[in-house]
Amino acid sequence: LTTETGIAPIQYRRATLALRYLLHLLSPNAPLLPRATLAEACSLARRGQGSWVTHLQMVLATLYPPVPFDPCAYLSQPLVQRLIQATNDSMHQHALLQLQSLKRLRILYLRISNEAPDSPPSHKAIVSYRDYLDIGNADHRKALTRLLCSDHLFAVEQHRRSPYKPRREWRICRFCRFRDCVEDEAHVLLDCVGSAALTEWRIRFF
Predict the structure, then answer these.
(1) Which member of 39, 87, 145, 153 has the greatest number of CB atoms within 10 A?
(2) pTM score, two decimals?
(3) Burial (Cβ within 10 Å: 0-12, 13-18, ≥19) of residue 129
(4) According to the model, what pLDDT value does residue 70 have?
(5) Closest Cα to residue 1, out of 94, 103, 121, 65?
(6) Sign of the CA dihedral 41, 46, 47, 49?
(7) Using only C-alpha atoms, what is the Rg of the chain?
């Protein structure tokens, strides 16, 4: 959802909102009472007691990758801006690690890695609103989304849900029926010649 819609996960969104509020409290125009409350929270943190600042530290530490924050450090706007950027970086790294670790999202990961094969992927390449979500035909939009997210009827996915879970090389194409023809997204879209109708549709499409 995050990589395809550009919507941040709730834990990252809440952490960013808290940091932005902290940035506001550190501005010269911040209301006096909230600034005094922040000063007291920092004082409690330096004495080793729980406060809003120490809770913010725990929230940032639970992100993956975690964002280091010393609640006893002197708070300044440049420091909080760096924390906001680090939280944003953590969100993108987390999304990329998820794509790398989940075999069923192979197409989504290959889309990112092929965009800039010789350099780290940009934030926009990892997390952004995708154009295919604007496809007018709802059935086509749902079909393409299911294909990209591996929520389809191909053998490579259906056997993942099987109680026996055969090895990948045994999830052969129902049309080709050759041992090396794994019925995955790439085979069905580009290689399968076992179905005349599928081959004709492919020729017409390309």
Answers:
(1) 87
(2) 0.85
(3) exposed
(4) 96
(5) 94
(6) positive
(7) 24
